[in-house]
Amino acid sequence: xxxxxxxxxxxxxxxxxxxxxxxxxxxxxxxxxxxxxxxxxxxxxxxxxxxxxxxxxxxxxxxxxxxxxxxxxxxxxxxxxxxxxxxxxxxxxxxxxxxxxxxxxxxxxxxxxxxxxxxxxxxxxxxxxxxxxxxxxxxxxxxxxxxxxxxxxxxxxxxxxxxxxxxxxxxxxxxxxxxxxxxxxxxxxxxxxxxxxxxxxxxxxxxxxxxxxxxxxxxxxxxxxxxxxxxxxxxxxxxxxxxxxxxxxxxxxxxxxxxxxxxxxxxxxxxxxxxxxxxxxxxxxxxxxxxxxxxxxxxxxxxxxxxxxxxxxxxxxxxxxxxxxxxxxxxxxxxxxxxxxxxxxxxxxxxxxxxxxxxxxxxxxxxxxxxxxxxxxxxxxxxxxxxxxxxxxxxxxxxxxxxxxxxxxxxxxxxxxxxxxxxxxxxxxxxxxxxxxxxxxxxxxxxxxxxxxxxxxxxxxxxxxx
Length: 466
What we know:
By secondary structure, the chain is an all-alpha fold.
């Protein structure tokens, strides 16, 4: 491709991905206003975020496999169109149920966009411009995440919360024809879709989240029932994975120690971060009195710090070791959350919280930089994309569980208890990093794949979180 054609292809792949990244956290600084307008409480609000995350996470691997089978551009364009329609439905929502359902459909669209976006960008750029494509992909994703809370606050304050979704519509209307014009079609290995496996594991997490949310509303029996159903579904998932010739996750990966430790650490980090920022963003408005836009500005030290920390930490992975860097990131994040939990009270000054947010963002940056390296470095090259897709899924599920669990803790114990719980989980994740140590397998040096598993899924985006 010539330079101009490559540029247009990168723009075409970046626009929908930017929408997906922004919408991951765009509602954080609009939640207080949404709660008043739709007359809902913490449990309903958490589903506004979790509905999106669960649908997105549960279908990431399926989206990648579908792109390989029927065409990546086709899936990308279809996902963009679905995301755009769902955004309009979110904007028109007049009740919590409609908003939650529309957010879930947004997640389905996002799961079709993200896994194939990098593959399409790299294919358009060619081998000689591969680094450019990867850099643009990561930069746009990071910018979207950093901008999400700020854009949400600005639009909510200047217009109305409905407009944080309306702004996606013109972007989508431009992105669909642009993608059809600028991006070529491609396919990959025609793998069978593991529909039963996808349904079982997603339903298991949804059941657990539902039980925890019901517990937050006072339903102890619902908690037990939800967790029991979740355990049964997970057992069914495990049994199915052992039987099917095309499992969602090849069983031999569960025996790769660095791979498993990396995913445990990622789940712990995202659990604590998503759950904590969910409440701290509301604290800035409801307790400290900031407007949605002012709250968005004041979370920038947290959301933007990883963009500075990731390049520095990436240069240190080989020198220090991916496990040690991730352990350090968890310790920084955990310490910052403890700091915020102890200072977040009526009458506190923003200055007392700002430094902790910088520390939190720096800790996340260390994990964002090193976690993809230890995930990819632990498996053979044909399984790099599959390993990345599994990691993406686990991180998103961790975020959904974090919001649900900390909502229950918040309802029964208040903000401090909720954030301290998140800090404890992140702290526990540090032990997985220490267990990995300095040693990080070089990409391609991991165990050989067993069977025919070579999923095409986007690598872990180092900036999926604030």
